[in-house]
Amino acid sequence: MKGTLRTTQVHHSDSKTDFNDWSDPKVKPLKREFSLTPHTQPETPEEEVRSSEKSVQQFSITSNTTAEIEDLRSKLREGQPLLSLKEIRTFKLPFYESLLLNLKDDGFLSTHAFINDLIISDDTWHTERVKDPVIKDRPHLKLKPLALNALSDGLTKAEIAKKAGKDNEELRSMLNLALHFSNKAEDSWYWIAEELYEQCVGICDNEAVLGKLEEELVAIAKYVYAKFLLEALHDLNYAKTIVEQSMVLSIGKFWNASEIMGESCDILYFESCLLLHKIYLEMAHHERSYDLEKAINMCRNAYQWAKLINCKSAEANALLNLVIIYLAAGRPDPVTSHLESYMKLCQEQQDILGLCEGYILLAAYHKLKEQDEKVVYDLQNLLEVAEENNIEKMMALAHRKLATFFLMQGKVDAIQQHAIKAYNLYVKLDSKLEMEETRCLTGLAQAQEIMSQFLYILLEAENVDIAEFDILMWWKSLRIPFFTNIQLFQPEAETNSKLKDRVEEMKREEMSVLNEAKKAEKVSTISMSFSKPSLRLGQTSTGTLPLLSIKHSFLDRFKSKP
C-alpha cells in the first residue's frame, strides 16, 4: 500500500546452506498421447513409417538441447562458487557488525563482548565530544577495519589460550596486543592500549591463576604498563605504584624484556629503577610551582635511584634538575656542591652539551651572588667550549647571554659585538624567534649610546620639561628589554604604554604647581649643578660625551625648590 513501509526480517541459521541438496529436474522425453476418434482413419503402413521417423527426429533434438543446458549449468557452477553465510554478511552488513556476528557464531564470546564494549564506549566518547569540540578528535573504531582485525586476532588467541588453561600464553597474547596499540606513531589508539594493559594487570592480580603465572612475565607486563603510563598518559602516581610492584618481583633476578618489547633492554630491575628515577623527576617538575621542598625531595629520590644502579647520566640529570630548582627559588647556598658534582660527571661522560648547561647554571649562580666578573668568565667558558666542539646553537646562546649581561651593565660596544654575532648565528640556524629577540638587543645597544648623548644635550638646553626629564631618568634606570613582551611585532608597546601613563600623570602634577618662570629658574639650576657630586659622570663609548647617572635626590631637589 502506498505510504506504508514494509520491513523484512531475515533469520540467519548457524548451519551453512548446502546448495548441492537442490537437485536439478531430470530430463524426460515428452510423451505424446495418441487418441483414436471415430473420424480418424487408420494409417497405412507407409504413413506409420513416416510418423515413426518424425518422432525419432523430435526426440533427438530434445535430447541435444537438454545436454547443452546441463553442460551450461555445470560451467556456471564452476565459475561462481557458492557463498557462505559469513561471506554474505561481509557484503551485506557493515564490517564491524559482520565481525561481531562471526565472533559470536564461532564461539568467541569474550572477544565479542570486549570489542562490542569498546565500540559502545567509543561512540559515547564521540557523542560527548560534540559538546566540547576543543578536545582533540580521534578516529571511530567501528570505521577502522585494520584496528578491528588486530583486536579480533589478538583477543581470539588470548581466549583460545584461556579455554585451554594456558594462562601464561593468555597474558602474553594480551600484552603483545597492548604493545601493538601503544607503539603506534599517533596517540589516537592509546585509549585502547590502556584498556588492554588493564586487562593484563587484571590477569596478573587474579588470585585464581596467581600461582600458575610466570613471575618474569608478570614483572615484565607491569614494567611495560608503567612505562606506558609515564610516557604516553603522564599518570605519574599510578606509574610509580605499578613499577614498584615490578621491582619487588625482579630484584635479584636477571630477567630481560627485550624479546617482548622488540628493542634492546638492560636487566629488568635496572630498567625499573631508571623508570622510577624518571617518574620522580617528572613529579619534581610538577611540584616546583606548588611545594618547593617537596620538589627538592623528589629530585633527591631520583638521584638516589640513579646512584643505586650506577647510571652516571641519570645521576647528572637529577643533579641538574636539583640545581635548577635551587636557583629558581633564589637559594644559591646548596648549589655549589651539586653543581661541582654535575660538572665532574659531565666531564667523565664527555657530555659536551651537559657541560654547556653547567656553565650556564654557573653563570646564573654567580649572577645571583652579584659576582659580575665571574658571570662574564663563565659565559666566556661556555663560548669557548661551544666553539671548540662547533656547537652553533650554544655559540649563539653564549653570545646572546653576554650581550644581555652587558646591556644591564651599560657597555654599548660589548653589547653590539655579541648581539651581531648571535644574530648571524641564529640566521644560519633559521631560528626566527631568537633572531627577533637578538635584533631587539642590537637596537637597545644603539639606543643606550644615543640616550647618553641626549641627556647631555638636555643639560645644555635652555628649556627643559622637568616631567619629560624625570620620566626619561625613570625609564633609563629600569633597563627593560623590549623582547620581554610575547608579541614581537610591537614588543615595546607595553613599556611605551606605561611610560605614557606616567608622563601624563607627572605632567598634571607639574602643571598645577609650576609656571614658566619657575621652569626657567630650574633650567639654570641644572646647568649650575652639572659639576656637583650628585651627578656621576663617566665616559661614553665614543669617549667624547659624558655618560650620566642621576640619583633620586637630584630630581627631588628640583621639586623642593620654590
SSE map:
Layout: H1 45-79, H2 85-92, H3 95-105, H4 109-129, H5 145-163, H6 167-182, H7 190-204, H8 215-233, H9 236-250, H10 258-261, H11 268-287, H12 292-308, H13 312-328, H14 335-349, H15 352-368, H16 372-388, H17 392-409, H18 412-429, H19 432-460, H20 466-478, H21 493-513, H22 516-528, E1 535-539, E2 546-550, H23 552-560
Antiparallel strand pairs: 1-2
Helix pairs in contact: 3-4, 3-5, 4-5, 5-6, 6-7, 6-8, 7-8, 8-9, 8-11, 9-11, 11-12, 12-13, 13-14, 13-15, 14-15, 15-16, 16-17, 17-18, 17-19, 18-19, 20-21
How much of the sequence lies in strands comes to under 5%
DSSP helix count?
Answer: 23
Low-pLDDT ranges = 1-41, 481-493, 526-562
Strand order of the largest sheet: 1-2
The largest pleated sheet is described as: 2 strands, antiparallel
| Helix-strand string | HHHHHHHHHHHHHHHHHHHHHHEEH
Overall geometry? elongated
Number of DSSP-assigned strands: 2
Coarse structural class: mainly alpha
Output the radius of gyration: 44 Å
The overall average pLDDT, rounded, is 77
Summarize the amount of helix as a percent range.
55-70%
Distance between the termini: 108 Å
Protein architecture, described:
The chain is an all-alpha fold and 562 residues long. It has a domain at 460-560. Helix content is 69%, strand content 2%. It has 23 helices and two strands. It has helices at residues 45-79, 85-92, 95-105, 109-129, 145-163, 167-182, 190-204, 215-233, 236-250, 258-261, 268-287, 292-308, 312-328, 335-349, 352-368, 372-388, 392-409, 412-429, 432-460, 466-478, 493-513, 516-528, 552-560, and strands at 535-539, 546-550. The protein has a two-stranded antiparallel sheet. Strand 1 (535-539) and strand 2 form a beta hairpin. Helix 7 (190-204) packs antiparallel against helix 8 (215-233) and helix 13 packs parallel to helix 15 (352-368). The longest helix has 35 residues, at 45-79. It starts with 44 loop residues before the first helix and ends with a helix.
